[in-house]
Amino acid sequence: MSGMASVAQMAGELVGVLGRFRGGRTRAFSFGDGGPEAVMLTYDEFEDLGGEHKFVVGDVVVGPGELAGGLGAVVEAVRRGDGVPVVWGEDGEPEAVVMSTAQYRELRGDDQPPAGVVDDPTVRVYATEPLPGSRPLDLDEWAARMGPETQEILEELRREDRDGR
Hints:
The protein is α+β, with helices and mostly antiparallel strands. It is built from seven helices and four strands, in the order αββαααββααα.
């Protein structure tokens, strides 16, 4: 798929998406009609970010065929603001999740964009330049703040490093 897939395109690509997720060939991505409306991500990512504790999800894992037939309704619910994350996969095994872009931001702990701003949370870029007044980490200073035990461990590591262990 090049560019952002529409809802109809995604409905026809679900088995392929699972294959790419399983092979590690794709990460979370947005799709929608006319802009990012929903996000597809692996269940592992959802679980790693605490999704089961942040959102109510059903006990049933939806199959790709069933989701393909209902993906339009899932995205319609997202557009209305009352959609819930849908866990899906083959043979009842949770493999992927589809959720709104707002829910994905919440899952990741990202800020919501200002009203009217189109934002794809799966391709966000964050400022990485140091803050004013930042300085390099001084390991000895840090160890001193952590206490005598940390200082001893640091010295032990340095001795081992000098001795070639």
